[in-house]
Amino acid sequence: MNARETQQEDVYDDLTSRAFLHSSTLSPLSATHVSPSSLKSSSAPPTRSPLALPWPPLESPSSETCMINGIWRKIRGRFNSYGAAGSGAIHRQAILSLFAQIGQMYHLTWFGISDFGNENVELVQSIADLQFPKAAILGNHDSWTTPKFSAKTKDRIQLQLESLGDEHVGYSRLDFSELKISVVGGRPFSCGGEHLYRRKLLSARYGVHDMEGSARRIYNATLGTPEDNLVILLAHNGPTGLGSNLNDICGKDWSVGGGDHGDPDLAQALSRLKDSSNLSIPLIVFGHMHKELAYRAGLRKMIVVGDDETIYLNGAIVPRVKPVTVSHEQGAAQQSEGTLRAFTLVEIVDGRVARIAETWVSVLKDGGAAVAEELVLFDGKPLG
């Protein structure tokens, strides 16, 4: 999160608002975790059928409600002890829900760009226990009070990393063979800018002492990526080079005159990958930089498409959950309290990013859910 967050009241939101809109099956996809020290390729993915279906069929309100409620029921029971609507809370988290189409079915992969909370081990464990494909990277709030690893006991950062296991992709790669997608992680615990945040943690666990070493670790994580896979880079903060105005995707909105608050190591790794490899890297996903600018100065640009058609996507919508009251028109008039929950949805078809939408879902206390609003950010080209 950015520098102004220490002055803000904690805003909590809900995991399940970013974990549905899936096909009717929730069978886990196979995934292979690869660290730079053990470069193993996943098995050859199956051949996909021609991709003919459009964007997940949300045109019909009935099918839309069915899809949402079905996945809601599968997930909500895990979180009865965590707050609103019987589900868990995630602190200021940027989420990407990725649809990839295989034959005649859509599959969802859930990406957590953090922050999960101020070292909220219990929540991270609950997320790790969810049985669907996912990848995550810890952010600066996930290392909020721990500057270095404890030599005597397992600290809360170690417990979070153990909970996520291979699904934490910091400086590593997770291959989803069915989807022909590889997720490569950027630097964990990033706070943005030139400062190497939590240097002692990075040094002890990853052997990283400076930005150059960090860029090298990100680059090395891509080595051995299956030839047919496209690569998605998952980071807590975006790279430098995307603008320095207040409202740019990684621009300093709390500083007079703005400035580029991107991660230089991520930019270095990307530049080297584009110069020295034939990997397809259509999408860079991150959070950290809030959509709403400091001092109510407007809204941030949340998507950038580079000259090489690489898409840079920021998912940091804060607050992600808003209270709402819904009126029922049929029968006796009544009010039902609920929430609006935001998540970012990406559709990839035939190895290309086809559509990106910021989607708000209305969730009622009785368990009902429906898409309330959708802001399309990309539909073959950036919109808005």
UniProtKB/TrEMBL annotation:
Residue ranges annotated for the Calcineurin-like phosphoesterase domain, each copy included: 115-291
Region (Disordered): 28-56
InterPro entries xrefs: Calcineurin-like_PHP (IPR004843), DevT-like (IPR027629), Metallo-depent_PP-like (IPR029052)
SUPFAM superfamilies (UniProt xref): Metallo-dependent phosphatases
Biased composition (Low complexity): 35-52
Molecular function per GO: hydrolase activity
Top-level lineage group: Eukaryota
UniProt name for this protein: Calcineurin-like phosphoesterase domain-containing protein
Organism this protein belongs to: Linum tenue
